[in-house]
Amino acid sequence: MTRPQPSPDRIMQIGLGFEASKTLLSAVEVGVFTELAKSPADAPALRDRLGLHPRAAGDFFDTLVALGFLRRIDGVYHNAEDTDAFLDRAKPSYAHVGGMLEMANARLFGIWNHLTDTLRTGESQDESKSSELDTYDALYSDPLRLKQFLASMTSISHTANLKIAEQVPWQDYRTLADMGTAQGDLAVQVLLANPHLTGVGFDLPAAAPVFDEYVEENGLRDRLRFVGGDFFAEELPSADVITFGHILHNWDLEKKKLLLEKAWHALPKGGAVIVYDALIDDDRSENAFALLMSLTMRAVTDGGFGYTAAECVDWMTEAGFTRTRTEHLAGPDSIVVGIKE
């Protein structure tokens, strides 16, 4: 039997995948989908509305058609169904996708361009590279960059936050403390779905205005408040449940373990710590998204990296949690729960 000849197609598709990615990110940046949501347009009209130069605009629009992000009918461009639903800035759903893509375009795309430097030196390539500040102090020092970053955290976490709000037995608890809360979407979704709960969001003080605005928009000002501080230097707020959503992957092993130990001390008997991330599968061979996220953390933080559910369970056990469980949430995200007995 003749063995099939290997094909270079997959290699070329992934190797040049940045071209399609940047085309989409630039389309979000210049507002293609928002403009077409207002009204479809032919190429000259759309080009003028976006303020684009005629030299590349036609190829740009048609590439978006070929990639499936736009439809062209009798020379008139329309949004595809998914881009109209999620990439129109005027729609609330934009916040749950567009924010992450904006951050990817403005920040991650350039950082990933220096991945080889991280591989050779082990050093991060983020804002702290040319600063004496650490990763998050550097990131939080620019209010506009900070707001974009915090909104992107809502984008990447929102689906998992909705699952946590319905999947965890919240009827067993009364209070919640969300660590590294960003805009506060995890706490917001949990409290919206569970009216008996009250909570706090804990983050560096610079995040307070963005958090407060988001909480106000969701009508939770009387049940959810912000606490500013450094969770390595200070005690964690006391609560029945302490959550770390897309947080542990930011830190080195020592700091991961320290946060879990601090959570154990802050919780009452019967309390729970809830950790979720894009967890790497135990064989480290299947969840490509989680492994790519781990590479991202290597490139954008001083010591962060992804981890498996089994590793997280070991760290929780070492911290004192005697009962643990792991569940899938949505997409690449899974949850690890530790109970203090």
From TrEMBL:
Pfam families: Dimerisation, Methyltransf_2. One of its GO terms (molecular function) is O-methyltransferase activity. Residues 112-321 form the O-methyltransferase C-terminal domain. Keywords: Methyltransferase, S-adenosyl-L-methionine, Transferase. It comes from Streptomyces netropsis. Coiled coil: none annotated. This is Precorrin-6B methylase 2. One of its GO terms (biological process) is methylation.
